[in-house]
Every structure is written in structure tokens, then in C-alpha cells.
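Input:
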Amino acid sequence: MENSEKTEVVLLACGSFNPITNMHLRLFELAKDYMNGTGKYEVIKGIISPVGDAYKKKGLISAHHRVIMAELATKNSKWLEVDTWESLQQDWIETATVLRHHQEKLEASSCDQQQDSPVLERPGRKRKWAEQRQDFSQKKSLEQTKTKGVPKVKLLCGADLLESFGVPNLWKGEDIAKIVGDYGLICITRAGNDAQKFIYESDVLWKHQNNIHLVNEWITNDISSTKIRRALRRGQSIRYLVPDLVQEYIEKHSLYSSESEERNVGVILAPLQRKTAEADT
Amino acid sequence: MNPRNPPVYNWRHPFSPQRYRPNRSTPVAQTRAHLQHSSPQQMQIRIPQILHAVECPTLGSVLGGTVRSNERSAQPPWSSQSGRVAAAASVNVADKMKSRIPVVLLACGSFNPITNMHLRLFEVARDHLHQTGRYQVIGGIISPVNDNYGKKDLVAARHRVAMARLALQTSDWIQVDPWESEQVQWMETVKVLRHHHSELLRSLPWKEGLDQGKVDSPGPAAVPELKLLCGADVLKTFQTPNLWKDKHIQEIVEKFGLVCVDRAGHDPKGYILGSPILQRYQDNIHLAREPVQNEISATYIRRALGQGQSVKYLLPDAVIAYIKEHDLYTSPGEE
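Output:
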């Protein structure tokens, strides 16, 4: 197959998506164009993984709304999908764990494809068809194990997430190392210089710099969810900043208000809480 | 109650021949009822139903003649809203509403192609004018420039008009007007303003309606105003020698008015202070702040398309489909 030398990549974006905006969706498009453009990768899927309510961020509305809005936003997309695993967990989950979950899922389904062959032993009239399929999938899986390998999950993010690595106690050092070492980061940034400087000033990021891809966003598209929520509170229009279906959904359910913005005020963010708890034990 | 216009649920929904209405039992409404009482585990099952329930209009249905603006092309949008304006003026809902000046926003430009940022200009301008308490925006017009403008890479007007129409499918107050593009030659912006202003005055039946049977109006209702909508970059071009005639600039800001939306790297207040004409009529120049910095330039879009890069989420999907279908902007410098 002509694509056999390329590594297949799955882009995973974690975040609040409170709400999802056109900017979030642009991140995927930019990352895909960039990775495919290197000639070394082929982006096969994009996953949006909204954070669980247990994250306790200020103004974070219920996960089921955020998941539905993400679903509505990706309705039209052939390669983007929403994954609810993270949002359904009782406790907050570290990003590195979410990455691991998705990587394992990919490995498992890739294994399934290879193991398909011996399992198809249905008697009766389906046998002939099953045997033919068996031959085909055996051949295909051999090719796969030889050349393609398992698709790799990479974390997609904006420069703000990269720089949040520097916030004390927000990330575990070992998690940062895992994310850039075992998986890889694709960071969409406007100010490429600042991001490069940030990588330079961190030993662990510097060590894995080949696994950190900085993609320049030439169009300033500063549609932050915070600004969307503020505009909604002030009765201002958010049309053309979020997909139409999302805007309709928000309006229909009156999702964002001064009250919703007050949620979790005074509550410590889950990762910080966990860090304190671990320090105490 | 939201001070803006009522919610927009108005594109053609494949499920129903009428418009998608929020309070009927639409698929989304039904799913929502389930979700209100479901546990997180149940939610996981519900989500696939949403995917089947909610669908987006396809380009086929759009081009099959069900485009809303075709129906509306005979009438400007504000003619149906004039009743609302008149009603607002005559009923004492709030004193403010009575004295609000009706405004139509006109945006001239290449729209080569139209982008989400162009559409945002209208939304931001409307919010701004409403917030002043003095205006009620009753309509918006996009007027793509004539082919004879001679700008580099300008694709044929019929395409630019068609793309704008597709982009405005889901808007209930903005529409595209091909008049400028259909003229024999390029014309100055002030002439386009004059044309649309006289059309506006001619089309409104409000004059007769208000004269009849209104007892306690304090006086004649306000005349609708047509204002030029633009980005701060256009305001800057007023300084370019020989690009605009001084008397035209004066007519634009004196007789019509300008609504100018922020753009990064520009200093609209500075441009006003630097021009005696603009300074004199600065009360008629409204500077609207766009809280979201949005630099989606059509130039960039054309370049990205020429290089085979994605422009999804920067312009409406229907416009992207049209561009692909007609092979527009395939390489920079063509057409």
C-alpha cells in the first residue's frame, strides 16, 4: 500500500469545551493539514474528549450538555468524533491517563483486526464466505503488522495548554514526560516564538522536542469559550463563532447565565486538589 | 427577554417543510426530555439518537430552489418587519422602543469569498447599535462589488453573489443584493448608498400605517436610516490619496452614517481624529468593538484554498461546498 511508510495518527483534544467553538474545530483542521503535509503522518481520526464535571472549573456546566454540543458541532465532519469516556468518569482523570486509554483502545482494535482470521469458523452455508474473508484478513493483517503498525494518539492543544505545564502543581512532572515522551504533542500557536522559548526553557520538553509539533495559526481566531459565555450573559450575538446547531442548542436550553458562571466558585480545581492530597499523605 | 431579535431557528430542516421551530416536539426537544432525567450511563445510549435526529441541510436541497433568499428577493427583509417596528413605536412597551431609529446596515466589498468574519460584522454592529438604546436594526444588506472594480483575483460576480446567498441562508435579517454587481460599470460607494436608501424609503409602507389610527404618538416616527457597515481597515482607506472623493466621504458620514467594527492593528479613533471631515461628523460614526479577535481575511482563505488547505469553520459549509463544486480559487493568481 502506498501509505505504508506513514504513521497513522489520531488527534486527541481534551478540554472543557464549555462551549465548543469554531476555534476548537479549526485546531483539528490546522493540525491535520500540518501533519499530513510533513509526508510522515496520516491523520485518520480526531477525537474530542470533554472533561468530566469533577474537574470543578469555574463556570463548567454539566457534561451531558457539553458532550451534546460537541456532537452537534461535529455532525458534519467525516473524521471528527466525540468520546464520552472521560466525561462519564466519577473522578477527574489526568490527561496522560486519557491518552493511555485511547492508545490502548486503538491497540486493542488493531489486535482484533489481526485476530479476526482464526475466529471465523461458522459452520453451514456461511463457511465459504467466512473462509474467503479469513484469507483476505490474514493477508491484510500480515501487511499491517509488517508496515502500518498501530495508529498513534497525539495530544492536540493550543499554546495555552503548553504553557500551563509551567503552572505549579497543575501537572505532575511524570505526566508531562509521558505526554511528550510516549505520545506527542501538536500545539497550535499564534506566537511561535513564545512557544519555542517555553520548550527551550524546560528540560523535559527540550528532550522530546521532536515529538512536539508547533503549528502556526496565521489567522488570529481568538474565539475563546470564556468570551462566548460573556457575550451570552450580555445578550450579544455568538453567531458565526460557534456552529449554528450549537448556538441554537445553547439558546434553546439557556445554558449560560450569571448563575452558571458562578458554579464551582471557591472550589479548588481537581488537579490542584489532588496534588495537595498527595502531598498530605 | 433578550433585547436582540428573537432566536433564529429558520433554516430548512429536512424533517419538516416548515421552519425548524423551537417549542414543538422536534427530535432535539424529545431527546432533551430524556436527558433531563437520565443518568450518565444512559446518556451514552442517547447520543446516537441525536445524530440521527439532527441533520444539516445539504447543498442539494439548497440549490434545488429552496433557498430562502430567492423567496425574499422580491421584498427586502425589513418590509415584513416594518409592522413590528411600527407596532413597537405605537405600543408603549417601553419609551425607549418608541423613539428608536430604525436602521439598515449596508456592507460593500469584494466578498471574495464571503467569510464568517463578514457575517460577524453584522452581528457585532447590530448588538452595538441596540446597546446604545437609540437604534433598532431592522435589516442588513451585503452588496458585492462589480467585476469592473478590477481587484486582483476577483472571481465573477455571479459566484460571489451566490456564495453570499448560501452564507445568508440561515440569517433572518441579512440578505444579499446584486444590484451593484449587475451595473454596467463600477460605482462609488456613495452611489450604492443613495440607491439603497431610496429603495428603503420607497418600500416601507410604515408611513401610511402610522398615520392612521395612532392617537398618542408624540410625533412622526423616525425615518429609517441606512448606515455603511465596514471594518476599521476601510476607515483607514479614507486617508489614501485619491481613493475616495472628499465630498463623498462627507456625504457618507453626514447623510448616512458609518458603523465601523474594530480590527486588530487599526486605530479607528486615531483615523477619525486625523481627518477634519470625520471629526466633524464623529457623532455619526459608531465604533463597535468586536470582543473576539477575528482575523479571517478572504485573502488568507484564497491562499489556503490555493494550497489545498482546509478552510472549514472559517466560512459556512455551504460556501465551501460551492467553491469546491465550481473549482474556484484553485490556484493563486487565476481568474
